[in-house]
């Protein structure tokens, strides 16, 4: 089991220097990862939103061990050739510590239609699959430089429980980040399905998010390989720092 901090770069945490300082503290306390949300805007009461990619660059320069990445970036609102450049550059900058979290995103946050982005979920799903295919081509050598990580940058796919199509998508990649899980029993059902679909397969991450202080034990028994500490949409720096200083579960 590995443990990470996952923060929205919103309001008080919209200063990338502050978030980088928190990432340094997490690394020093033994956490395995430090992830950030990827949004353009967010629903009230959030007002200030930092760019996650610039924030991750600050984290990459300030740390040397923790894995970093966006949790998650909706590929339907990204230009894939631009994202390919960003991900490879960030992978090199972090010495191979980037994990790319991807998904459909959500229309309820007001960051799709107001900016001319696709809102239809079926079309967003098509663009997600198309975007992942494009990324692998760019990472494979269509663009240079190529990622430091080989054969490519790991990809975790977001999946809203109990929908199964995102699960099938995730099985083609390196991990799954299921949301709205009702409990460890549901996760055990999901991981059994994954094992049945990948007999003899290589490593595959199952990521769950829990509030600070929740017991990860039942989730580990259910098959989770990563637990990310989630603070909701409006954490203060003091709340995040307190959780970091408490350290990952031993």
Structure, explained:
38% of the residues lie in helices and 17% in strands. The chain is globular, with a radius of gyration of 17 Å. It has a 9-stranded parallel beta sheet. The protein starts with a strand and ends with a helix. The chain has 250 residues and is α/β, with parallel strands linked by helices.
List the helices and strands and how they pair.
Layout: E1 2-7, H1 16-28, E2 33-36, H2 52-62, E3 67-70, E4 73-74, H3 80-93, E5 100-103, H4 121-142, E6 155-160, H5 165-170, E7 175-179, H6 184-197, E8 205-210, H7 217-221, E9 226-230, H8 237-246
Parallel strand pairs: 1-2, 1-9, 2-3, 4-5, 5-6, 6-7, 7-8, 8-9
Q: Pick out the low-confidence regions.
A: none
Distance between the termini: 10 Å
| Total number of helices | 8
> What would the principal axes of the Cα set say about the shape?
globular
Estimate percent helicity. 25-40%
* Overall radius of gyration: 17 Å
Instruction: Give the strand order, joined by hyphens, for the main sheet.
Output: 3-2-1-9-8-7-6-5-4
Structural class: alpha/beta
Please summarize the sheet with the most strands: 9 strands, parallel
Order of helices and strands: EHEHEEHEHEHEHEHEH
The overall average pLDDT, rounded, is 96
Question: What portion of residues belong to β-strands?
Answer: 15-25%
Task: Let me know the number of strands.
Answer: 9
């Amino acid at each position: 089991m590995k443990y990470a901090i996952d923060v929205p770069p919103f309001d008080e945490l919209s200063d990338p220097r502050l978030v980088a300082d928190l990432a340094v503290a997490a690394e020093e306390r033994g956490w395995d990862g430090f992830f950030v949300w990827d949004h353009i805007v967010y629903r009230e009461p959030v007002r200030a939103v930092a760019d996650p990619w610039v924030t991750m660059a600050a984290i990459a320069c300030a740390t040397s061990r923790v894995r970093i990445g966006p949790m998650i970036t909706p590929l339907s609102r990204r230009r894939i050739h631009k994202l390919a450049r960003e991900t490879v550059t960030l992978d090199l900058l972090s010495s191979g510590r980037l994990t790319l979290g991807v998904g459909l995103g959500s229309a309820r946050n007001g960051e799709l239609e107001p900016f001319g982005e696709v809102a239809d979920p079926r079309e967003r799903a098509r663009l997600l699959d198309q975007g992942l295919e494009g990324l692998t081509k760019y990472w494979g050598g269509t663009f240079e430089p190529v990622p430091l990580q080989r054969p490519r940058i790991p990809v975790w796919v977001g999946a809203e429980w109990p929908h199964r199509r995102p699960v099938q998508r995730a099985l083609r990649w390196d991990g799954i980040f299921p949301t709205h899980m009702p409990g460890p029993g549901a996760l055990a059902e999901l991981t059994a399905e994954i094992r049945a679909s990948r007999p003899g397969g290589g490593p595959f991450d199952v990521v769950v998010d829990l509030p600070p202080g929740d017991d990860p034990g039942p989730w580990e028994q259910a098959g989770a390989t990563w637990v990310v500490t989630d603070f909701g949409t409006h954490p203060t720096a003091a709340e995040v720092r307190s959780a970091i200083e408490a350290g990952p579960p031993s």
